[in-house]
Amino acid sequence: MINFFMLILIYSGVYALMAIGQNCITGSTGMLSLCHAGFFCIGSYATAIVCKVFGLSFWLSLPVAAIAAGFVGFLIGVPTLRLKGDYLCIATLGLGEIIRNIATNINPVGINSIPRASLFGYQFASRNKMAFIFLIWAFVIIFYILFQQLAHSRLGRAMTAIREDEVAAQSNGINVTKYKISSFVLGAAIGGIAGCFQTAYTLTVSPSSYTFMVSVMVLCTVVLGGMGNAKAVILGAFIIQFISYFQQLTGLTNVIPPQANQMIFGLILVVMMIWRPQGLLGRDKYRYGDPRTWRQKIAESFGRKKGGER
Amino acid sequence: MVTLTLYLQYIVNGLTLGAIYSLIALGYTMVYGILKFINFAHGDILMVGAFVGLIVYEALLGTSTSGAWMLIAFFIAMIASMAFCAVLGMFIERVAYKPLRNANRLAPLLSAIGVSFILSNGAAWMFGTQSRRFPYPFDNTPLTFLGISITPHQILILVVSVAMMLVLAFFVNKTRMGKAMRATSLDQPTSQLMGINVNRVISLTFAIGSALAAVGGILAAFDFRVYPSMGTMTGLKAFVAAVIGGIGSIPGAMLGGILLGILEAVGAPLLHIPNGLRDTVAFAVLIIVLLFRPEGILGKNEREKV
Question: Do the Cβ atoms of A86 and B105 come within 8 Å?
Answer without folding.
Answer: yes
